[in-house]
Sequence to fold (448 residues):
Amino acid sequence: MKDTERLAGETARDFAFRVLKDNIISLDLVPGSLISENDISSQLGISRTPVREAIIDLSKASIIEIYPQRGSYVSLIDPKMVEEARFLRRVLDCAVIKVACESADPDVLEKIEENLSLQDFYLVREAADKILDLDNEFHKLIYTAAHKDIVYEIRSTIMIHFDRVRTLSVEAVKDMKIVADHHAMYNAILNHDKETAVALVDKHLSRYRLDESKIKEEFPEYFK
Amino acid sequence: MKDTERLAGETARDFAFRVLKDNIISLDLVPGSLISENDISSQLGISRTPVREAIIDLSKASIIEIYPQRGSYVSLIDPKMVEEARFLRRVLDCAVIKVACESADPDVLEKIEENLSLQDFYLVREAADKILDLDNEFHKLIYTAAHKDIVYEIRSTIMIHFDRVRTLSVEAVKDMKIVADHHAMYNAILNHDKETAVALVDKHLSRYRLDESKIKEEFPEYFK
DNA sequence: TCTTGTAGACTTGTATACAAGTGTATCTGT
DNA sequence: ACAGATACACTTGTATACAAGTCTACAAGA
Fold:
């Protein structure tokens, strides 16, 4: 497991949660691997209690499975779970972008423009990790523009299943299409064009479905 | 706070979570009240650790607010939060009932019929609490029929905000309409009639919106 | 009277000890 | 050699001690 620096003011529990989540998404903690509360706590230099609390949090999202008195394991990638995550994301993204088309917060629109210009900036430099962060921020901003921040929190709890699959499928060529999608979505919001916006969300999501079968062939041991 | 018996095989943490959640929904723990980890643990006869873990869980759903080194409080009823919960419920219920209209699991349909007959049974006996339980089960069954159980879990984490408002607005006369709605929804699913189903979900939800302003007048100290 | 500081009783955050269950490796007896 | 008992090294679950921050009441001094 890759561990990072503990941020200033960050509680031990938040630290453990952040490190575990990042390592699960990045697949440095591979699906199916054992997570020992003792090991993690000694690696991070904190006690078992905050580590345990972080693990319980993650188990709520079904990304870690706790077997009492036996051990805790990183969940295998469950196609059914990924499918439900995709369903949830599609339903929420569509509903929220419709609201954004009706009435978007002007201040947030400004931030979206800034975000998009940065996506262009890093696109030409082929900085996939930067694009990924900006991608996440872009979608969060749409929720904020629609005043649906709590719904976004809900979305992100399950989206970890999706992000993990996304880690396996980063392709440089795809980033271009993704960024183009984002620009198109933003324009649809500006034009109050719900139909186009929803169609774009669908197209955007379909990009991930394609290579899932390829991934499954390449990494069968990660799947349930 | 009303405390109940600890169920057989139930962990201390699950016990604390269940008791706290039930008391928050029933408003025996009134909005804004202080929740002391020490008090709860001594009341329930368990130690602080599992109580603390339960409180952290509930704070994830924003139903309890933890202020480090100061105290943990039951969240006041936040109209914005309730509105987002309503939005989320509407979006999810509509999307899922559409799937159920397309293809519903026959075994689950059988269970829904059983549930509906029980709703009729308790309706004539005016057993509001039984109706409430059956109401929750009914909606969960629709999710199961559509094979969207994980989405239902997500739904229930935020629905606590909604349930709490519902506690303030139980009216015998309303139960009749609710049960009638359920029958109509079930028929729409049988008839694969998506349009009617979605319209029913909308009508169903609108029943709660009506008396929210009345509640706010009656219990202003519960609101943010 | 008003300010200030200080003691103390809270709070949550963290560390650690112990309880209890599980799986494995090993030893023992047949 | 094989079956079964057993010790041991794990695991998570729970209890408890202590650390550190916050608020309040109250007394001392200007």
Notes: Residues 34, 36-38, 48, 52, 66-72 of chain B lie near DNA strand C (CB under 10 Å from a C1'). Chain B has two domains: 12-74, 79-222.
